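U., I forgot to send this yesterday:
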Amino acid sequence: MHLTEFKKILIIISTKSNNYKKIENKISKKFNDIFKNNINKRFEIILSKDKYSISNESKKFAENNNSEQSLLIIVGGDGSISEAVNQVYHTNINFSFLPNGTGNDFSKTVYGKLKFDEILDNIENIKIEKIDLLKINEKVSINVASFGYESIVLKKSLQIKENFPALGSLSFMLGVIFTLNKIQKYNFEYELIMDNGEIVQGEKEYMLTAICNGKYYGGGFNPAPYASITDGIADVNAVEYVSISKLLRVISLYKDHRHLSVKESRNYKVISGKYKRKDNSTFIGNIDGNIEEFKEVNFKILPEQLNLGIFKFK
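Result:
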């Protein structure tokens, strides 16, 4: 499908990135070239103004253009993509994105190692594919929801990135270093419904748990190398409590999915499940990189829930 076949296209550029003006110019030039022979300008480019802009503008666009002939494109990182998806996944519009965040982890699942410029160069043709989402309590996740030590690291890395934006994805590794003294046991009660219908229940001391639709999180860490966004299954990776030295080894193995062979790493193919602390206390987690505080995590896979536009390469 060619972009000119859509009746309405809205492009929202997140201004969280320092290069958003440069990105806006590149996108504007590309779209003006694509639509130069069209009498009616069918696209609009807007910049986010505050932390609510992406959610609000996405919701408004979906309400006013609730049609399969409409396309919303988010330009930003996983958090921005997730904010928009939560507003439009239950509508008829098509959704797409251009990666321009720090980690761009969901993009790695869809486009592999391709970067912003390479994708933009091939943006004219698009294939619409129905993909799964994760329902996490009252929100949805397009990529990964996680909780435990990893989210403590993420929270710290976001603080580092805010003060030193040039560090980029290195902020996550610094987050690991600065939070080693905050490692603790998380005693969870859990119930998982597997893809074969089996129910697995138990209680375990976990350090980190990732519920995955996509394959990557944390700037390239790979908790679910065999995950698929179209299989109707969630991949769950949970790491039991280990010593600091072993934890550092496990984290290093996450980069190339060798953590699957570590005995403390538990991996499940599930349809739904729930986790809560045995003492009923709250715990820090995140949904697609957006920090949350949970009392309990109830999740399920939502098959074929979003019309995702994937740009086709020549």
